[in-house]
């Protein structure tokens, strides 16, 4: 009888290493799927409150990601940017409809309450594992480059780069998008306003990067989002 025995897989063997890699890959896929499900679920919540359109969030995410890539953000930051671009206004779920839907200018008290939406969004998203950083980026998406924004009055690079990107893209998208009570601004006027507030409200590097491709890509992005280009130009 031979003493030779077939070795069983044990720690450190190539077989075990392959199994370990496969398991890690499966966990990463599960984690990514869960993350996407959470984003979709929150997006639906925004739709239920009529706070969002798929078009709006798609445009934001596409433009934001493009700016982030051009500015050299790392992959993890780009992932947070995608979440922040899609869900930056999730906190508006906590704002009364009378304020959200008011067609006239908000009074001081109403505006104070409206400004709470960035903190509300942070408070919700920070509880989800993996969304903590994006929650902070959302908390600061209304900071102003000169320090006059809210909630913390951060300025310049104190403001997270993802928040600075979302701020510019969101403002531009709001300017060119039509609402039931007003027509969107023409592209040229929106660009003029972005440039005017570059260095005060907006990060000049973000504005510059965004405008370097916005005009050429606008028709593509709008078409992909299902919006006629003519509505924005
Ligand atoms: Fe906001």
Brief overview, please?
The chain has 233 residues and is mostly helical. It has helices at residues 14-48, 54-70, 75-87, 97-100, 108-114, 117-125, 132-139, 161-176, 187-196, 204-224.
Task: Name the structural class.
Answer: mainly alpha
Bulk shape: globular
Continuous helix count: 10
Q: Return the average pLDDT rounded to an integer.
A: 86
> Ligands bound here?
fe (ii) ion
The amount of beta strand, in percent, is under 5%
**What is the helical fraction, as a range of percent?**
55-70%
Largest sheet: none
Low-confidence stretches: none
Question: Could you tell me how far the N terminus lies from the C terminus, measured between alpha carbons in angstroms?
Answer: 86 Å
Number of strands: 0
Rg over C-alpha atoms, rounded to the nearest angstrom: 22 Å
- The helix/strand order is HHHHHHHHHH
